[in-house]
Amino acid sequence: MVKELYGDIISNTVDEINSIFPEGAENKKYIAVQFKSNYEKTGYENFAKELDEIARNTGCTIVFFAAGTAPTHDSFDIYKQVASYMTEPNFVYKSERVFNVVATIAGSEAVLGTSLHVRIMALIFHKPRVTWYTAKKHSNFINTWDAPDMRTCGTVPTTLALLNKYMGPTPEVTQEQTKEYYELIVKNYMESVAVWANLLNESNQRLPSDH
């Protein structure tokens, strides 16, 4: 319900993120990239080359953002190191404010990352998404709640091939099925809230009055 409850705040914050691009920039399309500090094992230079290829082929700037910077989580310093090896447009969006993080996802053309919460936000905002992780909690969520045509995790080297299916003027996989599944998730959630609200209301009515 993030989108429904906080849509205005997120929309205004997307405008703030777009203002970071150079003044007069015609292309403000970007791919949002997040990863845990201990994720990339092949070396930052190789990682940067893969992201450069993604940027060139999609015509998007790479925007690094953090889902959280607690120990063993994301690191702005590591983002800067990877970015330093890149030749294509990129920048590190150094904000940990929750609405800025969500807006970074909402305003993107696609979302790449290791975080399950990032995956969930990408689903909510109907964004092409590639998760670089196959932990049980990731696969459980994806196989239970995500749209069947988006139930794919990947690695950095396989990401471009996946994005080529999800992006472009005539993508092989659109976000239509994602929209249908999201509407179903919201419907199930609201029905569950109504059931629990009724149960709590009935329980309160049975409590003895305090006189």
How would you describe this structure in keywords?
single chain; globular; five-stranded parallel β-sheet; alpha/beta; 211 residues; 8 helices
Report on the structure:
By secondary structure, the protein is of the alpha/beta class. The chain is 52% helix and 9% strand. The protein is globular, with a radius of gyration of 20 Å. The termini are far apart.
Low-confidence stretches: none
**Helix percentage range:** 40-55%
Give the helix tally.
Answer: 8
**Coarse morphology:** globular
Order of helices and strands: HEHEHEHEHEHHH
Based on helices, strands and strand pairing, what is the structural class? alpha/beta
Instruction: State mean pLDDT (0 to 100 scale).
Output: 89
Largest sheet: 5 strands, parallel
The largest sheet has its strands arranged as: 3-2-1-4-5
- Taking the alpha carbons of the first and last residues, their distance comes to 40 Å
- The radius of gyration over CA amounts to 20 Å
Q: How many E strands?
A: 5
Strand content: 5-15%
Outline the fold blueprint.
Layout lengths: L1 H17 L11 E4 L10 H15 L2 E4 L11 H10 L4 E3 L5 H9 L3 E4 L2 H9 L4 E3 L4 H10 L13 H8 L9 H31 L5
Short description:
By secondary structure, the protein is of the alpha/beta class. It has eight helices and five strands, in the order αβαβαβαβαβααα.
